[in-house]
Design goal:
Elements lengths: L5 H32 L2 H9 L13 H10 L7 E7 L3 E11 L5 E10 L5 E8 H4 L7 H12 L6 H22 L4 H5 L8 H15 L1 H29 L4 H8 L16 H12 L5 E5 L7 E6 L9 E6 L5 E4 L9 H7 L1 H6 L4 H31 L6 H28 L5 H22 L3 H25 L5 H6 L4 H30 L8
Antiparallel strand pairs: 1-2, 1-5, 2-3, 3-4, 5-6, 6-7, 7-8
Helix pairs in contact: 1-5, 1-6, 1-14, 1-15, 2-5, 2-19, 6-9, 8-14, 14-15, 15-16, 15-17, 17-19
Length: 527
């Protein structure tokens, strides 16, 4: 039980309410898209029909990277990034570090996209900002992630905004905890025969109380990621390195050693990948090569956490000999509490530390946070609806955003399924979102009541979700037998998830419609 003086309780109630109202709708958008982005990889597999299960790092890649090194100008051998793209194909970015006109550190080079046979399918020249972006086959998953990370607002302003939203969630979580006088009682209190407002308040309290630990984790880790590069790194660089961000990166994240610019062939990358898999039990998620083609070359292999661990694993190899050097901390050259804390930020935020199970838990908790945010806004408005300070415009806005955003997201998924085979998914994915959002806004403006807005958007969302599996098949996606035969059950699982979710939304809509019909007065003709 938490007991505060009456005046302090009233203050905490005001802080809790206004912290949600001022940024609540944006916070809801970030949390909802983040909840979907937990399964961004699985959504990418499902939407693009990817059935390949063998990682690019499990296939021979040494010869292909050597050939790329031979055809790439030496000025771009300072760094090489290797990563998976599309249906387990390989991407390779040969680059150098330089500063732009504003003094900001950027990477410039050549980005190669390889097919499964190691042949160059596409090559792009430019800075990282210019050449990296959504591809036709991952436009949907990229759209979800970018909406969650920065709301499609240019850097650094998008990251700063989502960081502020994370702090707002932290304030709401702390103030919500403090205003619970009977915390443990509130966890189990659900009055079924009370007024609709009290029932909604009980549900809000139960969902919010159970998800409080997750809210703290999500808010803290999200703010960390948003402010780390936009605020933290520049401040530390200014304080300790005279504003030189590259010097900071080399000291904190690099591999210090005596420079040796003598030419030397890169070590066998296939042997490095095999050894890294043997040591971690996981294929690399990312491989970084420093000083490609020099005697002081270093190869860093990044991996998901080992089974039962939270911290990702990073292995360091001698680039010229392919010899294992050591397990490398995320920050610094020696293990530290700060390095471990920084390392677990990403797994704790994205919930990918225990595979599909932890992702499912994070998705459920994220859905609960969406419910808490939306019902909190509705309860705040309900109290004023009963008085003289009715805010009909804000009431409608909450409904449009609360139910219109899920509608826009599923319409976006449908548009991607149609546009991807035509090669125009990069354009139509965001365009469909904007069109669906405009429809929701227009409907909210002309609808006779808030209830009509809610019901219409829920009905439309449920119908589109149920249609998605059939639409995927009609646009050339693999059927369940093909996907299961290729060892890719995620496609069938996602189909079933959309069917279940759409059916659940329609069932809720039907029950709400039935309750409304039963409460409606019966008019008899005058005799």
């Amino acid at each position: 039980m938490i007991h505060l003086p009456r005046d302090e309780t009233k203050l905490m109630v005001a802080v809790h309410g206004w912290s949600g109202i001022v940024l609540g709708l944006l916070l809801y958008a970030v949390v909802l898209t983040g909840t979907a982005a937990v399964f961004a990889e699985e959504i990418g597999i499902w939407s693009a029909g990817h059935v390949e299960t063998r990682s690019a790092f499990e296939r021979p890649l040494d010869s292909a990277i050597r050939d790329l090194g031979a055809r790439t100008p030496a000025q771009y051998h300072e760094g090489v990034d290797l990563f998976e793209i599309g249906d387990h194909n390989l991407g390779a970015f040969f680059h150098r570090h330089e500063k732009d006109a504003g003094g900001n550190l950027i990477n410039r080079g050549i980005y190669y996209q390889l097919d499964k046979d190691g042949r160059v399918a596409k090559a792009l020249n430019g800075t990282g900002e210019e050449i990296f972006g959504p591809r036709n086959d991952d436009a949907l998953s990229s759209f979800l992630v970018d909406t969650h990370v920065r709301l499609h607002i240019p850097n650094p302003w998008g990251l700063l905004l989502t960081g502020i939203l994370g702090l707002a969630m932290l304030v709401a979580a702390i103030s919500g905890l403090l205003i619970h006088r009977h915390l443990f009682k509130d966890i189990f209190t659900l009055r079924r025969n009370a007024s609709p407002v009290l029932i909604d308040r009980d549900r809000h309290s139960v969902a919010g109380t159970w998800s409080l630990p997750f809210a703290f984790i999500l808010a803290f880790t999200g703010s960390f990621f948003s402010f780390f590069g936009t605020v933290g790194v520049p401040i530390v660089a200014m304080a300790a390195f005279g504003g030189d961000v590259q010097a900071l990166n080399e000291t904190v994240f690099g591999n210090p050693g005596k420079p040796d610019p003598r030419p030397a062939a890169i070590g066998n990358l296939d042997r490095i990948a095999a050894d890294a898999f043997r040591r971690t039990g996981e294929v690399p998620t990312f491989v970084q090569i420093e000083n490609f083609g020099r005697a002081d070359a270093k190869v860093t292999s990044f991996h998901h956490p080992k089974s039962g661990d939270l911290a990702p694993v990073t292995l360091l190899y001698d680039g010229a000999t392919a010899r294992f050097d050591r397990v490398k901390p995320t920050i610094g050259t020696r293990p530290s509490a700060g390095g471990t804390l920084a390392a677990i930020m990403a797994p704790m935020h994205f919930g990918n530390f225990a595979g599909i199970l932890s992702k499912a838990v994070w998705f459920a908790l994220g859905f609960a946070m969406c419910y808490v945010t939306l019902t909190g806004l509705q309860l705040w408005l309900a109290r004023r609806r009963e008085g003289t300070r009715s805010l009909d415009w804000l009431d409608r806005t909450v409904s449009v955003v609360g139910f219109g955003l899920p509608f826009a997201l599923v319409v976006t998924a449908a548009a991607f399924l149609i546009a991807m085979p035509l090669g125009s998914a990069i354009f139509w994915t965001p365009a469909a979102f904007l069109i669906a959002s405009a429809i929701a806004i227009l409907g909210g403006a002309v609808a006779p009541s808030r209830g009509a807005i809610d019901r219409a958007l829920q009905l439309a969302t449920g119908l589109v979700m149920i249609a998605l599996p059939a639409l995927r098949l009609l646009t050339g996606g693999p059927g369940w037998p093909v996907a299961m035969g290729a060892g890719q059950p995620m496609i069938a699982i996602m189909d079933m998830a959309f069917l279940f979710a759409g059916g659940w939304v329609l069932w809720g809509h039907f029950k709400q419609f039935r309750r409304t019909a039963l409460r409606a007065p019966v008019l008899y003709p005058a005799e």
